[in-house]
Amino acid sequence: MELYLDLFSQPCRAVFLLAKVLEIPFEFKYVNLATGQHLGDEFGKISMMRKVPVMKDGEFVLTESTAILEYMVQKHRAPDHWFPSELLLRARINEYLSWQHTNLRAHGSKIFLLKMLFPLMMGCEVPKEKMDAAMEDLNMSLIQLENYFLQNKPFIIGDKISVADIVAMAEIMQPVGTGVDVFTGRPTLSAWRDRVTAQVGVELFKEANEVIMKAKDLSQNIDKTALEMMKPKFQKMFS
Amino acid sequence: MSLKLFLDMISQPCRSVFLFAKKNNLPVEVKLISLKNGEQHTEKFRKVNPLRKVPALKDGDFCMGESIPMMEYMAEKFNTPDHWFPKDLQKRARVNEYLSWQHLGIRMHGSKIFVMKPKAVLEVPEDKMARAMEDLNWSLDLIEKTFIKDGGFIGGEQISIADLVAIVEIMQPFASGVDVFQGRAKLSAWKERVVQAVGKELFDEAHKTILSAKDSVKQLDSSKVEYFRPRVLRLIS
């Protein structure tokens, strides 16, 4: 199995973590988003969607991390708690994985993009109202994660860790990597983070998040040609 | 019937849930909720879905939101034919792939066009509208060229939940006056296959509300316009 990944990307981190935790043998194929490698011809032959992660299992090519995660659990017959088959638990995990696209994922990504890419793409600092609105949205998602999805359970679907926790943690680390402290004043979230880290393994957690925790270095490492190529798309997004 | 579905047919995910439940003749009770009248904010509805969204499902004491998981729940509980949500590893992966992509693909862009079009609520600057149309066209191109299998459906030779979810999203900008099918022979042919598989009568019933939305927006009173305006602004900013 080949996994095309850039650990700057949240869905890539989730896929990487699960593959490692389940001890699925794979070849890590690095796709450097900061140099625009995903836009090149070589990567286009792997996937026309031009996004990461991509999984290539023999001849079968699959995009979309939630699809890849479910595929890996099913194919490798991982312990049931990762993606439970029981009707109500399955409904709960699916509910989280569906909700998160346009909530925690969208809002966490926006903070990252505004903090890390806005100044580079637009040539000025982020307007305060824009940043405040984005933080408000992120806070709402975190409140919903705590109060609706976690409540007083150890993990999202109950006593055991699942793909939902891996996905949630990957998304939360995105704004965290830019210096936003989401954990202070949130004991429920902090305790959950500690449990997830312990389950996954401290070393592995650190390895998966090494790149995002150095997000502030992005502006120095981003390739100038790639920057120019990506500018139109981001300027459209930011204006 | 112990399983209740809370729907507003103006909402795309409500329509896919409705189509799935009715096509499979599932023993469910449909309760209509009016988003326009703020019924999702009532105390009664909050007990069903604290996130205050539709569609919502209540099966005895079990409540949930999110249309795709709801359909998977019903598929499993009522043992619907396999093609809706295939158990085969790779077929399931293909369906999941589309269902994941579409959230920030067609769903986002189609919804934007639908709320931006009615001038009754907000006069959207031309360049913003143009960019939104560009995004919509990009999504439609991808669906046509990458997701729909030649002569078939998104997951393969048979219709699945992916096609229901796709068609209801595409109908949203269509209902606001954008002819998404013009110049797209493959998309149009796929639409016909989906309508046939679901049944024209059921398809039309599901889309009755949305297809008359253009006219009902013109009749919105000023308090409703004031309610929608900031929400539209937030969506397009």
TrEMBL record, chain A:
MF terms from GO for this chain are: glutathione transferase activity
- Which keywords appear in this protein's UniProt record, sorted alphabetically? Cytoplasm, Transferase
UniProt superkingdom: Eukaryota
Q: List the CDD domains hit by this protein, alphabetically.
A: GST_C_Theta
Q: Where in the cell is it found?
A: Cytoplasm
Which family is this protein grouped under?
A: Belongs to the GST superfamily. Theta family.
Question: What protein name does the entry list?
Answer: glutathione transferase
Q: Identify the species of origin.
A: Neogobius melanostomus (round goby)
TrEMBL record, chain B:
Q: Which GO terms describe its molecular function?
A: glutathione transferase activity
Q: Name one Pfam family in it.
A: GST_C
Q: Which UniProt keywords apply?
A: Cytoplasm, Transferase
- What PROSITE patterns does UniProt report for this protein, alphabetically? GST_CTER (PS50405), GST_NTER (PS50404)
Reaction catalysis annotation = RX + glutathione = an S-substituted glutathione + a halide anion + H(+)
**Which Gene3D superfamilies does the record cross-reference, listed alphabetically?**
1.20.1050.10, Glutaredoxin (3.40.30.10)
Write out the GO biological process terms.
Answer: glutathione metabolic process
Q: Which family does it belong to?
A: Belongs to the GST superfamily. Theta family.
Subunit comment = Homodimer.
Q: What is this protein called?
A: glutathione transferase
Which lineage ranks, top first, belong to the organism behind this chain? Eukaryota, Metazoa, Chordata, Craniata, Vertebrata
